[in-house]
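Appendix B. Chain record.
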Amino acid sequence: MIPFPTVRQAAPQLSLMTIMVFLSMYSRVVLSPLLVFIQEDLAIGPATATRLFLPMAIAYSVSMLASGFLAERIGHRRTIAASGIVLGAGLLGVGLGGNLATMNSAFGLIGAGAGLYPPSGVASVTAMVHDDIRGTAIAIHEVGPNSAFVLAPLVVAAGVALVDWRVIAIASGVVAIAMAFTFERVSIAGGFAARRPHLENLAYIFRQPVFWAITVFFSLAASSTLGVFSILPTFLIGTEGYPVGVVNTLISVSRVSGIAMVFAAGVLVDRVGVRRLIGAVIGITGILTLAIGIFTGHAMLVVVFLQPVIITAFFPPALSAIADLGPPEIRGVAVAFMIPTVNIVSNGVFPTMMGALTEQGMVRAGFVGLGLTMLASLVLLPFLGRSPRGSVPGT
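Structure tokens predicted for this chain:
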């Protein structure tokens, strides 16, 4: 596929990609507002409930590591479609599951489906357009996951007023499967095969300081978005005593401004550079995350609102930094080895730790610890923006 020279020409294909990445994120984040109802239905505590995210995180990581081998055989486009089908099957499992073992399996299936997307998605989007509009194209693509953070709480808040929570999960699964088949039939994105991960590629990637710096920043940024998002309903409803409707509305509305922030970041990264933008976003988000653990009452709710607005600006410059590692084949391999670590930390270890702290009455300490760690990570900023070391394999 010849790269599109303008965003307007790429818009139809970018729209399809945006819908698919939306489903990939929505399938995971919708579980957070549903977790309160799952906990009640299965009669389990917050620590056990949040541990459901651990098999999802493990399956996500294993699936992503294997995604390169699948994409080498069937291409990126069909791998993206397969991701949607597996996600849908997992959501159906959540809706139909009647015990903890089944629910663990369903969460794991959702993680496996979501793990297939990022390497193929990033490689496809960055290969779709010329380099001079890459930041804008990535920003459009990132509207998908940020929209999922907005819509998932609203879907649950509106849905549970009309139907049982299980219907929401089942309907979401049906939509994901239907869209996967549609994407495979009409999209031209990702019409090339992945490069199989091998020692030569890995040695090249692991020599790049930017790879390790971005992995740390990604882990912290994801913990402050998906990780914090997964525990916020339990924290605000179960610990702080706010009504379900108020919490889901607050969390959802806070993500609306984040969509505009993604577009702004996509433009800014092409103008001010990766290092400055990531430094500002990580620093401000660290302070706001720290404040969630310190403030109470209305002041805490204001910080809960502001924190996700700022951190959404991280992802366009971070993905742009990944693209600087090399050609699309190299980028897919880099993502396949970076994101599993990020996911285990942000969507497995962090929510599990926060669930345990909740039962001990120390959940605020988790927010404080994450905020301080983000501020400390700024020492890694000098590693961003450096030229890759060595020649790209195969050139």
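Further analysis of this model is presented in Appendix C.
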